[in-house]
Design a protein that fits this description.
The complex is a heterodimer. Chain A is α+β, with helices and mostly antiparallel strands. Chain A is built from three helices and seven strands. Residues about 10-15 and about 150-160 of chain B have low confidence and may be disordered. Chain B is α+β, with helices and mostly antiparallel strands. An eight-stranded antiparallel β-barrel of chain B has the order 2-3-4-5-6-7-8-9. Helix content of chain B is about 20%, strand content about 40%. In chain B, a hairpin with a 6-residue loop joins strand 6 and strand 7. The chains are: A alpha+beta, B alpha+beta. Chains A and B meet through helix 1, strand 1, strand 2 and helix 2 of A and strand 3, strand 4 and strand 5 of B.
């Protein structure tokens, strides 16, 4: 029994190491993160398009609604960020044009240490109940190491402080 | 043709005639075909879940198929002890059920990865777990367990630095 527990713990540790290695292929950050591929994170990929790579866990970040971030990576011939490119990615992820679920609230293009980045805020079309969450999405879209990345947050609403935090994380990517 | 092969072919024909795939994309369509669906899916919303604290891995799952005024929404709330919690919602394109194989497939408006499961009397089996139908109070119990889990995943080791 004791041997079984030791083997289980070792397997679990190996599992986590493999997970981290896989994550580094997709994204790196100056922040402490763990990357969870859909193979490791059961059901995290249901309803996600094929460009979904997994979930970034900002492990020491306290605020829950900006802690887990969905990562998408798209193949594109484009080299610059513009509205058309960003909205193309948003359409692929959320199907906004045919959706009765989400609607676009705000769209901005901002400067960052990695060039231009789109910031897209969408919301559930149905008014949220007081204690409900998962009604909003905030996406940062831009190039990191020549890869087109989309980071999708699930915040409980957005404000200047949260936007600042989202930008800080984008700047930390490398 | 022997009598046996004639019988076998007619049996196959009978099976294939009885097999039917039924689909719904709206509440109206669900109402029209619900008699052909298993009990689990006869009424919307459908709330399915797993409550499985294990020795090595805890997995809590709540999946919901929720009707709306103009759409059907698939809502997920998942906690895995080695990964953490993820919640999402996505609009359903259609839900199909094969009366022969008892297989379910939920497809999504964004053409995202379909949700496949097989119905059995205990619930629906998918990805190595069996999701059971939850009452509202059972859903609240599992949600409470998910929310009681620490925000920072103690199993996680920093990576990507």
């Amino acid at each position: 029994m004791k041997n079984f527990i030791i083997i289980a713990i070792l397997l679990h540790a190996l599992n986590l190491m493999a997970q981290s290695k896989t994550g580094e292929e997709y994204i790196k950050s100056k922040e402490d993160i763990v990357f969870h591929t859909p193979d490791m994170f059961k059901f995290s990929d249901v309803g996600k398009i094929s460009e979904f790579r997994g979930v970034i866990d900002r492990i020491y970040f306290k605020s829950h609604d900006l802690k887990m971030v969905d990562l998408y990576q798209f193949k594109t011939d484009a080299v610059k960020v513009n509205k058309e490119l960003c909205m193309d990615f948003v359409e692929k992820i959320f199907a906004l044009s045919s959706s009765k679920l989400f609607e676009l609230k705000t769209f901005k293009i901002e400067d960052s240490n990695k060039g231009k980045v789109c910031e897209v805020y969408i919301a559930d079309q149905k008014k949220p109940k007081k204690d409900s969450d998962a009604y909003y999405r905030f996406a940062s879209i831009g190039f990191v190491n020549a890869k087109a990345n989309v980071l999708v947050y699930h915040p409980k609403g957005i404000n200047d402080e949260k936007i600042s935090e989202v930008r800080k994380f984008w700047s930390s990517l490398r | 043709m022997t009598k046996f092969s004639a019988f076998f072919i007619s049996l196959l024909f009978a099976v294939s005639v009885n097999a039917e795939q039924v689909c719904f994309a709206t509440m109206e369509e669900h109402e029209a075909i619900k008699d052909k669906l298993p009990n689990l899916f006869k009424e919307l919303p459908v709330i399915l879940g797993v409550d499985s604290p294990g020795m090595v891995l805890d997995v809590f799952v709540i999946l919901k198929i929720v009707p709306r005024e103009k759409a059907i929404v698939f809502d997920s709330d998942v906690y895995v002890s080695t990964s953490g919690r993820t919640k999402d919602k996505v609009e359903v394109k259609n839900v199909c059920y094969d009366t022969d194989s008892k297989a379910f497939r939920i497809q999504f408006k964004n053409n995202g990865k379909a949700f496949d499961a097989v119905y059995d009397n205990n619930g629906v089996a998918t990805r190595g777990v069996v999701l059971k139908k939850l009452s509202l109070s059972e859903q609240k119990t599992i949600k409470g367990k998910i929310e009681a889990k620490p925000t920072n995943n103690p199993a996680a080791q920093p990576a990507g630095q």
